[in-house]
Amino acid sequence: MWGNVLLSPPRIELPQDVTTNILHRQGAKSELKCAQKVCTTWWKVSNDPTLWQAIDFSNPRQGVFNDEYNVMCCCAVDRSHGQLVELTIHYFNDDVLFDYIVHQ
């Protein structure tokens, strides 16, 4: 008798463009904080500059400005490696952040 054996679900390898699409729909905060920790494939995709060409980094807490969002926004801009085309930021009021984005 083998006892209780835990089996992993079958591994599914999605094409990179499909994985990129899935991660992009999660939003920048989720991509930065969670997605890269799921598996090696998601880590690789979350570090691909093409994922960061369009970033929607709207602050969900209207009027709340904090360092966490500024750091995450800078990290997202860094990951674009100069390929950033579109950036959406709402309710941020930080000249240092804007200066950083412009000079990247």
Write out key terms for the chains shown:
104 residues; mainly alpha; two-stranded parallel sheet; 5 helices; 43% helix; elongated
Describe this structure in words.
This is F-box protein SKIP19-like. Residues 13-57 form the F-box domain. This protein is mainly α and 104 residues long. It has one domain (16-102). Helix content is 43%, strand content 6%. It contains 5 helices and 2 strands; from the N terminus they run αααβαβα. A two-stranded parallel sheet has the order 1-2. The longest helix is centred in the last third of the chain and has 13 residues, at 67-79. The protein starts with 15 loop residues before the first helix and ends with a helix. The relative contact order is 0.15.
Distance between the termini: 61 Å
Largest sheet, strands/sense/barrel: 2 strands, parallel
From the alpha carbons, calculate the radius of gyration and give it in angstroms: 17 Å
The ordered string of helix (H) and strand (E) elements is HHHEHEH
Q: Which structural class do you get from the secondary structure elements? A: mainly alpha
Specify the helix fraction band.
40-55%
Total helical segments = 5
Pfam families: F-box-like
InterPro entries: F-box-like_dom_sf, F-box_dom, LRR_dom_sf
Protein name: F-box protein SKIP19-like
Domain F-box: 13-57
